[in-house]
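Key result, reporting period 2: structure in, sequence out.
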C-alpha cells in the first residue's frame, strides 16, 4: 500500500473514501459481527472494509473492520494511515455524507490539516431553507450556485439541482403515497365492518410506517361514532417536494484551489469507488462469501482482492479500445448533468466492432476470449510427446499488444495448430 501511494498520490491530491461490507460463513472470526448488510444478508455476520482510491479510481489501500462499525468510525484509521504510513500532510478527502460527518471533521480532519469534500444530509438542507439561506425557487433546471452559512464558517456550500432526480423522487413519492393511502383505507373498511379490533387496527396502522409516508397523513377518530378518516398533509408534501432534486456539496477547499465545477465533479467521482466494489463482488474477484475464520486471513483475503482489482483497473485502461467503455466522454451541460457519450462509444455500442473489425465486449467476456490460448501435449508415439500451442486469434493478439505483452511459443514447440 505504501508503494502504491508513492506511485500514484502526491501532496494536495484528491483521495476518495468509501465503505462496503461482505458476509462471512461461520462465527469464529473476531471481525464477524451483525450490522447493516449491503449484501442484503442480515442472516449472516459480516466484515466491513474501507477502500481508498485516487481521483481516477485507482485503488491504493484497504482496511478491514468489525461488521457493526459505522461508516464514519472508519475515517480515523484512514487519516492515520495517510499521514503516518504514506507520509502525506496535505490531501483532499472525498467521502459521502455518512463517511465525513461533523464529528469526524472536528476530531480527525481539521487537527491533521486535511481538506474535505462531502455533502449535506437532507434534514440539514431543510434547515438552510427554513433559515432563508437557501431558496430552491431561485435555482433553474441544472442549477449550480454557491451559498454561505454561519453554521459552516470558512467553508463553501455548492447547491446543485438535478431535474431528472427531482422528477424521479416525485414519481416515487406519489406512488408510495397512493399505496399507503390504499392500505389505510382497506384497514379502515375492515375496522368499520367490525372485523378488526381497535388495538389490532392501531398495530397494523403503525406497521405502515415502513414506507416513511405516514408523516404525510392526518388521522382522525370520531369518539362518538368510532368512525376513522384520513387526509393528506398537503403542506408537508409541498415542503418536501421543494427539496426534490437538490443536493449540497460541502468543502473547505478554497475556490482558487478547486472551483465549484471541479468540486462537484470530484464528489460525483465517488461512483468510481462504487464501481470498484461491484468488481469486488462479481464472479471475477469473488470477495464474498468469506470462509476464513482468523482475522489476519480475512485481512489478507481483502488485500489480495485489492491487488487483483489494481491489476484489473490498469487492464481496463489499456484494453478500453476493445471494451464498451467510453474512452472520451463529453462533459454534460453542467457538472450536475451526466456525461454525454462520445460518438465513438455510440458506434462501438451499436456495431459491436472496432474500426479494425475486432469484436467489442465487456471486460469479463474479453477475458473469456483468452481461454482459447493453451498448450496441448501431442503424442507421436509411445513415450514421445511434443507441446503444441494454439495459434492466437487477431483479437487475442490485439489484447496482448494493448497490454504491452507478448505471446511466447510453447517450450520445444515444433508446429502451431488452429
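The corresponding designed sequence is given below.
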Amino acid at each position: 500500500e505504501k508503494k502504491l501511494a508513492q506511485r500514484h498520490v502526491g501532496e494536495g491530491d484528491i483521495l476518495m473514501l468509501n465503505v462496503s461490507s461482505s458476509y462471512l460463513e461461520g462465527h469464529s472470526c473476531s471481525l464477524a459481527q451483525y450490522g447493516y448488510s449491503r449484501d442484503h444478508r442480515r442472516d449472516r455476520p459480516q466484515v466491513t472494509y474501507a477502500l481508498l482510491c485516487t481521483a481516477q479510481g485507482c485503488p491504493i489501500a484497504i482496511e478491514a473492520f468489525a461488521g457493526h462499525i459505522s461508516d464514519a468510525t472508519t475515517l480515523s484509521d484512514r487519516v492515520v494511515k495517510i499521514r503516518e504510513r504514506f507520509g502525506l500532510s496535505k490531501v483532499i478527502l472525498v467521502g459521502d455524507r455518512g463517511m465525513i460527518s461533523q464529528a469526524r471533521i472536528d476530531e480527525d480532519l481539521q487537527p491533521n490539516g486535511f481538506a474535505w469534500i462531502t455533502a449535506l444530509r437532507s434534514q440539514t438542507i431543510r434547515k438552510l431553507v427554513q433559515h432563508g439561506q437557501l431558496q430552491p425557487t431561485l435555482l433553474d433546471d441544472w442549477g449550480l450556485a454557491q451559498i454561505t452559512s454561519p453554521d459552516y464558517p470558512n467553508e463553501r456550500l455548492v447547491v446543485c439541482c438535478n431535474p431528472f432526480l427531482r422528477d424521479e423522487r416525485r414519481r416515487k413519492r406519489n406512488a408510495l403515497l397512493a399505496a399507503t393511502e390504499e392500505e389505510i383505507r382497506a384497514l379502515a373498511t375492515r375496522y368499520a365492518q367490525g372485523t378488526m379490533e381497535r388495538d389490532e387496527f392501531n398495530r397494523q396502522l403503525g406497521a405502515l410506517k415502513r414506507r416513511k409516508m405516514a408523516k404525510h397523513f392526518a388521522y382522525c377518530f370520531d369518539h362518538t361514532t368510532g368512525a376513522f378518516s384520513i387526509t393528506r398533509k398537503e403542506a408537508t408534501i409541498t415542503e418536501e417536494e421543494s427539496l426534490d432534486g437538490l443536493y449540497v456539496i460541502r468543502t473547505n477547499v478554497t475556490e482558487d484551489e478547486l472551483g465549484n465545477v471541479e468540486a462537484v465533479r470530484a464528489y460525483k467521482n465517488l461512483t468510481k469507488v462504487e464501481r470498484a466494489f461491484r468488481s469486488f463482488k462479481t464472479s471475477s474477484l469473488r470477495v464474498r462469501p468469506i470462509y476464513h475464520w482468523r482475522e489476519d486471513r480475512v485481512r489478507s483475503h481483502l488485500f489480495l482482492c485489492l491487488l487483483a482489482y489494481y491489476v484489473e483497473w490498469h487492464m481496463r485502461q489499456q484494453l478500453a479500445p476493445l471494451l464498451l467503455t467510453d474512452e472520451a466522454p463529453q462533459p454534460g451541460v453542467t457538472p450536475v448533468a451526466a456525461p454525454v457519450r462520445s460518438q465513438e462509444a455510440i458506434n462501438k455500442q451499436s456495431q459491436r466492432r472496432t474500426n479494425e473489425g475486432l469484436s467489442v465486449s465487456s471486460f469479463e467476456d474479453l477475458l473469456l476470449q483468452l481461454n482459447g490460448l493453451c498448450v496441448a501435449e501431442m503424442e507421436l508415439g509411445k513415450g514421445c510427446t511434443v507441446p503444441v500451442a494454439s495459434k492466437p486469434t487477431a483479437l487475442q493478439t490485439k489484447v496482448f499488444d494493448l497490454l504491452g505483452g507478448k505471446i511466447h511459443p510453447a517450450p520445444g514447440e515444433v508446429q502451431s495448430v488452429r
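DSSP finds 13 helices and 13 strands in the chain. Residues 414-418 have pLDDT under 50 and may be disordered. This case is discussed further under Risks and Mitigation.
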